[in-house]
Amino acid sequence: MTEIEWKGYDKLKAQLGKLPEVVHDAVWDATFDVVEKAEGYAVKELQSSVKYGNGELVRSIKYEVVNKDGEIVGRVWSDDPVALFRELGTGRVGEESEKDLPDGFTPMYRQTPWFIPADDVDTDLNELYGMPKVEINGRQFYRTNGQPARQFMTPAVKQASQEAPEIIKTSVETALHHKLGGSLW
After folding, report:
1. CA–CA distance, 55 with 140 (Å, rounded to integer)
2. What's the pTM?
3. Strand (E) positions, the chain?
4. Which of 32, 34, 57, 112 is buried most, with the most CB atoms less than 10 Å from its CB?
5. 106-119 residue pLDDT tens
6. How far is the CA of 49 from the CAs of 126, 135, 167, in angstroms?
7. Nearest CA among 146, 143, 85 for reference residue 115
8. What is the pLDDT of residue 141?
């Protein structure tokens, strides 16, 4: 009978045992890179399109990576309600404006105009947005039917999502090379 000796079997077995953890950690790190990119794209869009702002909306953007039911999930969001109004628009104008919405998501919009007390804002909304100024019982108000959607988060997430496969692939390859001395591709 012929004997065959397999050299390196113990090393291979040890490396294969480490493989799930190495891949998980690489995907975890890559997911942080993806959500950071999405946040960066959202910030860039806001900074290039907000003319009269104080940076509050930009500072409100947050991100995290979590384990959810065994899956690695990256999240990007804003905790400022203005972000929602900007992303989806408001009133009839927002409802009628073009925007990218997820399937099955149908926001509800106010159908009647509303009034903003002129004393409550420090800029001329007529000059900025064309809102007519009206006087009611001696007080000045701006009348509005809403504002169009000016999405910044949805395009940012889509752009980062398109880059995600390459980011994850590179992270996994790098981790395999540095921690196990090999590659899957």
Report:
1. 28
2. 0.82
3. 61-68, 71-78, 114-117, 133-136, 139-144
4. 34
5. 999 999 999 999 99
6. 19, 31, 28
7. 143
8. 97
